[in-house]
Each structure stands twice: as structure tokens, then as C-alpha cells.
Amino acid sequence: EVQLQASGGGLGQPGGSLRLSCSASGFTFRNFAMGWVRQAPGKEREFVAGISWNGARRYYSDSVSGRFTISRDNAKNTLYLQMNSLKSEDTGVYYCTKGQTRGQGTLVTVSS
To answer: Which DSSP category does 104 fall into?
Structure first.
């Protein structure tokens, strides 16, 4: 069974940073592209970032490009999202994804 457990969310200051982690199990992590999506209150879920199986290719939404960095550690079966220069519009629940599978999310709130 695929399990994706995100962590690291919490309260962030505007202009500040947070780092999310996603622990993966139940599949061969190093063989799959992974991603992050988020859902803000009252809004549709949206793509945030994606990374190829070996980390060579990374993709970002326009709204986070230049501020967020996706990375992975295949030895630890873990996906990361470094979030810098946080904005209030980054508030939402963040989920890591394997294809169409979405794990438990972690709440990020950006507020002063």
C-alpha cells in the first residue's frame, strides 16, 4: 500500500521559510517522479512542484517559481519542499503526490 506522509507545516511569517518533508513507503520510491500540490481554503487544489525520479528535472508553478525548491533523497525515501519568501497566498494544505495518489497533507499558514 502506497503511503505518503507529509510533515513540517505550521505557522510561517511573510518573507520567512518553511521546509516540508514527505516520507514515502509501500513502493520503490527511487523509480517514480513525485510532486507537491496544495489546496487553499475555498479554492481548488493546484500543482506546486514536481521532480523526476532522479531529481534531474524539476517543475514549478508560476506562483512559486524562484521561491520554492523541490528535492528528494532516494536513499531515505523522502521528498522535500523548501519554501522561501513566504506569502499569505501560500497558505493551504500541502500534499505530496505519486501520480494521482495523494497522501496526508500538512497545513501551512502564512501570517504575521
So the answer is: B
